Amino acid sequence: MATQMVAAQLASMVWNNPSQQQFLQFGGSSGSQLPQIQTDVVLPSCKKKAPPDTPVKERLFIVFNPHPLPLDVLEDIFCRFGNLIEVYLVSGKNVGYAKYADRISANDAITTLHGKILNGVRLKVMLADSPREESNKRQRTY
What we know:
By secondary structure, this protein is of the alpha+beta class. The protein is built from 4 helices and 7 strands, in the order αβββαββαββα.
């Protein structure tokens, strides 16, 4: 995972104009080296996460190209819009989800992050289909 992050940063530095980039430090333990995020996105300050048992008002679907970002970086990025309940990745896929306790926070995340590049990884951020809609889809017949 660390080698992917270094490779993504190097690729991003080669392809992007460094004078337009903003370097941000993200949280970690006091004794460890903090990961750097390279992006041209202006992110809001960190906000407190919502408790895990909070009802989900909006779910976002996230697509990563060429590979997913580390989970701790994703949590730090998506919590900046407030009311984040959880961010998780789908194992073996370049996709993940973010759950929000507030629709406005989720819409702010979409507006700010959709189509942007973070550490050489392009993000597509959109509203996820609700589980109720997915269960109403026609069943496959094999």
